[in-house]
Amino acid sequence: MTIDSMDPEEVDAADILGSAIERREDPALITGDAEYTDDIQRPGMAHMAVARSQYGHADLEGVDTSAAEEMEGVVATYTHEDLHGEDTPEGGSFSLPTGWLLDSLEQVDHPILADGRVRYQGDAIAVVVAEDRYTARDAAEAVSVDYGRRDAVTDPREALDEGAPALHGEDNVAFDWELGDSDATDEAFESASHTVSIDVENQLLVPNAMEPRAAVADYSPGSEELEVFMTSQNPHLHRLLMSGVIGHPEHKLRVKAPEVGGGFGSKIHHYADEALAAWIAKDLERPVKWTATRTETYVTDAQGRGHRTEAELAMDDDGRITGLRVDTKANLGAYLSTFAPAVPTWLYGTLLSGQYDIPAIHCSVTGAFTNVPPVDAYRGAGRPEASFVVERLAHLGAREVDMDPAEFRRLNFVPADEFPYETQVAVVYDSGDYEKPLDKALEMVDYDSFRERQEQAREEGRYLGIGFSCYIEACGLAPSELAGQLGAQAGLWESSLVRFHPSGTVTAFCGTSGHGQGHATTYAQIVANELGIPYDDVEVVEGDTDEIPHGMGTYGSRSAAVGGSSLVKSSEKLVEKAKEIAAHQLEADPDDIEFEAGEFRLAGAPDRSLGIKEVAEQSYLAHDMPEEMEPGLEATSFYDPDNFVFPFGTHVAVVEVDPDSGEIEFEQYAAVDDVGNQINPKIVEGQIHGGIAQGIGQALYEGAEYDENAQLLTGSMQDYAVPKTYHIPEMETDSTVTESPHNPLGVKGVGEAGTIAAPQAVVNAVADALEPFGVEGIEMPLTAERVWEATNGRATTDGGSPPGEGDDEGGEKR
Ligand code: MCN
Q: Helices 235-246 and 272-284: crossing angle, nearest 10°?
């Protein structure tokens, strides 16, 4: 089903919420009118470039910036000593903090310029500032560094082995964390009739936002105001963190996110470069610009995933799941990035029950330091890893008990009448009806006839496969009290301000910070609906710490559920005040006033009414206000939800695999997602499409590969296979709607769902296709070479049949 977008003028005001109206942000983006950080110019602006480590792990035996300083056009150079010398103003830590703590966490220093040792290729060593960006880059190349090479390690399992090169202390253990009941899980395995296991990698990924990270900093010595434009998903959080890192007071620091060209999580975190640009602008009293090259984004942006996991599933005779045991070694990279400790723990372990009623679960995770860039949230952040483990095991479990994979899942689903459902891994699912998306998806792929087609194809030497992914995920991490108990060093509420102008138009300010998700459209839909005014009369503002009351930003698919709900709350407060003004002017009791479709009416006397726009005008004229009421019409809220929301769905991939060449072709990709009520079905569809493309990218193409010296081998778009449009199949999407009871809109998040759902649908489909070869699974990315190797090159072009079961031990083959 493809949704057509609608012109907002053709939509009835009463239907504005829930309509697929076209994205209002697109004309500026498409015509090049949008302003990104790198477009910003300031008179007298200097340019910054960073001299970075060539090696994955080394001591700095000498850093010499003299050749750079002598180059014409170079303004200044900085090394670690310049930030910590006698002349450096006090107050800044010049180290990057971690925003999520765990009991066993080993906190390590993360200096913004390396202090005698570099721990990943790309670690910042020195900074050069010059009159233009080309001179700055040339001068950064001219910084001479003597390295004392050290052994490096990039794999989390190897990093935890005894004798592995240690990055910080004696070993590389960043934390040990567990969740669930190990005794109950042991018992489940002891009494199990069947078990299956996997030993899988969830590979490291490079986020690859279209716009590289960038910052422009401008300092006014007179007012001591420091203004920083940056590619940020969360300007208020960046302001807070940066304030501590560079020692500039929060109230004199303004962080603005202009148009941001995607982030996928990578622009949540606080990095060295933006802090350096800000501090240097202040130090030099000159505007400073820094824009990463694509190569820099490959070696410095926080990467995602990086798990090595052993997991087992226990089942009884009937195919019911009785236990799940998971042990994961998680790659954290060289330093702890802003939210790194949360991703492989609370955002992972808590999702391991999937859509299933599993009576005993135990999960242990060890976080490991390695010589790769810091690893943190990347689209999905923990939930794709969990969903992958659960759905790969479901695929193998069904095979083990000789059940149809769809029916195996159905048998084990949490029944629709059991919500709210408390899992064995510390969360309560808000609402769900898991059979509905499964049934729709089965219909979309005509599952009834598939097995017959598959059989026939096999007889012709063609290998079709179908793969299921019945995923669940969690968005809108909340409430703040709970987040605090789990280790968050921030609240996870959202703030907004809705302001009527005297002429009757409205500006809605929200502390989320969209960077491609269409908030300007969907937030305007929410506010127009709440206030009963035309959609075009609402303007949305995000991404500026001076304009917006406060904010926690956009990540974790939280904006609709938490930011959108905050806008509802602000609108409700505003309507309350407007109602009192209307009652006063209508000479009635506020309790007798009804509000509907932008009109305040006296109950029982429909001719006595006032439009909300007239009330707004009256509130600013303030000639006739209720006693002691302040003039003006605006309201602010800080909304802290009761709980997470849990979107879910079923994705099904149908593929044909050529065992001779290892090529995989999609025959069909069907996705049925339930994200609660949809504010804008077109935007929801777009988010699902983008998410699936990224999930397919992980399944088939992408992977950050390092050599034994921790050099990134896939350090450019030539080598790192971001999928092209022709790699992505036609996606058939549909949805079911199960409202969340945890927010006033009844919405769940959608921004990451596709990425969380897709990888295991594809891997399961390929495994299904290659079942005659005894293949149980193949490590991602499923390159042609790996697929070919998994079938051991035992091709069937000679007309022979594939080897029978038992010739091959299966397992995840690399
Ligand atoms: N929406 C809706 N109905 C719902 C849920 C959401 O209409 N039931 C709309 C929202 O109003 C919003 C969009 O869908 O316009 C996404 O909403 P939501 O799921 O709340 O996600 P966020 O806005 O918080 O976006 C974050 C999410 C994440 S975590 C990543 S990563 C991601 C993603 O969004 N990165 C993206 N989508 C991206 N899209 C683009 N273009 N670029 C990125 O970097």
A: 60
